[in-house]
TrEMBL record:
Residues annotated as domain Tyr recombinase: 203-396
Keyword Zinc attributed: no
Protein's recorded name: Site-specific recombinase XerD
InterPro entries: CB, DNA_brk_join_enz, Integrase-like_cat_sf, Integrase_catalytic, Integrase_DNA-bd_sf, Integrase_DNA_bind_dom, Integrase_recombinase_N, Phage_Integrase
Organism annotation: Vibrio xiamenensis
Source organism superkingdom: Bacteria
Length: 399
């Protein structure tokens, strides 16, 4: 049962577990509590703007009754002037936490789990993209990372010869992490919207000449042959290993003859392909436009898929490696580009190559638009200049 008495050394020493609480007779709300285990703590109870608070002053192990009384007087004075000392303490704790929350700690302890929950397949890639690209900021408090820090990073990346798309991708992954930090109240805001990025020219069209196309395919075949020889030597096996040593050559053939985006290729399942009707379906959830579309299979793709399916009868995804869907293939891609002597050519440019060959073969631009999955004709018109015979014929009609 609580008792009322001035809090002193004597009264504190005589406080029993059965009494539970000692209310001071001089300072309103100042009291001491004893736990069932005998530990004593000092508190200040108060009301402010209709809210009830019980402010922890400290433990009797570290504060004397006189020290606790002085603190109680100080806090009571602040309350009388309208300060919510409990809220001030919480705010101080939040500020202290923010100072200790570095980018690395935030990524590891908070953001990684969020990425895994939202998209398990892409979580590792997104996490490593931020962690690897911004190592120089990993030990810096989250709320101290500024637009200037990132503007300097952009400048250094450009000096190192990194493509605008590569820089933008990494920056956007970091910005997404900061957006979540604001939502979760780890920081009040960020100014990363002020960072100026180099915009890539979307009108750029890079396609392969006949000689370049042959060089690329020859480099792919050469890679296949090297891996085949290495595998046979490793297991002393002279048996036939199949038409393709792995997913890479089928992937290149498919990209070159369908114009599919990388994301569409890597999410393509065998169930999305009708070998009987000779077409594949790109599901809306896997398409950039979020619209379903079908692409016919020409003889090259059809023949490749027959052989590739025969090698992987149990596979769920068309492009799998060691039983798992393919996620990265940058190393083999860069290797064959170097061997083929191709420069300034991205994997995405195989899509341009597909479209360019269609247009140069006289295919109507609207059909090209449908095959590529463009939302409107504006994007497809980038290829119009590749069909000069059509514009010449149009002018001749009125001659």
């Amino acid at each position: 049962m609580a008792i009322k008495q001035k809090i002193t050394n004597t009264s504190i020493k005589s406080l029993t577990v059965e009494q539970g609480r000692l209310n001071d007779t001089e300072i309103s709300g100042f009291h001491a509590r004893i736990s069932p285990k005998g530990s004593i703590k000092y508190y200040l109870y108060y009301r402010l703007n209709g809210k009830q608070r019980n402010y922890l002053i400290g433990s009797a192990d570290s504060l004397t009754p006189a020290q606790a009384r002085d603190l109680a007087k100080e806090k009571s004075g602040l309350v009388a002037s309208g300060v919510d000392v409990q809220e001030s303490r919480h705010e101080a704790k939040r500020l202290e936490m923010r100072k200790s929350l570095t980018l690395g700690k935030y990524l590891e302890e908070h953001y990684k789990d969020y990425l895994i929950a939202m998209n398990p397949k892409r979580a590792k890639q997104s996490y490593q993209c931020v962690a690897n690209n911004f190592k120089h900021l990993i030990n810096k408090p989250l709320d101290e990372i500024s637009a200037w820090d990132l503007q300097q990073w952009v400048t250094e990346r450009r000096k190192a010869g990194k493509a605008p798309a590569t820089i933008t991708y990494a920056f956007n992954r970091l910005k997404a992490a900061f957006n979540r930090a604001v939502e979760w109240e780890f920081i009040d805001s960020h100014n990363l919207n002020n960072v100026k990025l180099i915009k890539e020219d979307n009108t750029r069209i890079r396609y392969l000449s006949q000689e370049e196309e042959q060089a690329l395919l020859s480099a792919v075949k050469e890679r296949d042959s090297r891996l085949r020889d290495a595998k046979r030597s490793a297991v002393h096996n002279k048996a036939e290993l199949g038409q393709f040593i792995d997913y890479f050559e089928p992937l290149i053939i498919m990209a070159m003859h369908t114009g599919m985006r990388k994301g569409e290729l890597l999410t393509l399942r065998w169930e999305h392909i009708s070998m009987v009707n000779r077409y594949l379906t790109i599901r809306s959830e896997n398409a950039k436009s979020k619209k379903k579309r079908t692409i016919p299979l020409n003889d090259t793709v059809y023949s490749m898929l027959e052989d590739w399916r025969g090698q992987n009868p149990e596979a769920v995804f068309v492009f799998e490696h060691l039983g798992k869907p393919v996620e990265f293939f940058q190393h083999p891609w860069q290797t064959v580009l170097k061997e083929a002597g191709l420069y300034d050519f991205r994997f995405h440019d195989l899509r341009h190559h597909f479209a360019s060959k269609l247009v140069m073969a006289g295919v109507d631009l609207n059909i090209v638009r449908e095959l590529l999955g463009h939302a409107d004709l504006k994007m497809t018109l980038r290829y119009a200049h590749l069909a000069p015979e059509h514009t010449a014929e149009a002018v001749r009609l009125i001659g």
